[in-house]
Amino acid sequence: MKKRVLLVDDEANVRKALTTTLRRAGYETREASGGAEALELVRSFRPEVMLLDLRMPEPDGMETLRRLQQVDGPRPSVVMMTAYGSAADVMEAMKLGAFDYVQKPFDVARIKQVVARAVHQREPDEPAGAVRRPTEELTDQPGLVGLSPAMQEVYKLVGRVSTTKATVLIQGESGTGKELIARAIHANSPRAAKPMIPVNCGAIPETLLESELFGYERGAFTGAAGRKPGLFELADGGTLFLDEVGELSMPLQVKLLRVLQDRTLVRLGGVEPVPVDVRIIAATNRDLRELIRRGQFREDLFYRLHVVPIHMPPLRERKEDIPLLVQHFLAKYGRELGKEGCYLSPAALDVLMAYDWPGNVRQLENTIERALVLAGGSAILPEHVEVHPRENEPAGAADGLAAIRIENRTMRDIIREVEREAIVRALRKERGNRLRTAKRLGISRRALLYKLEAYGLDVPEQEP
Question: Is the full-model pTM beyond 0.90?
Answer without folding.
Answer: no
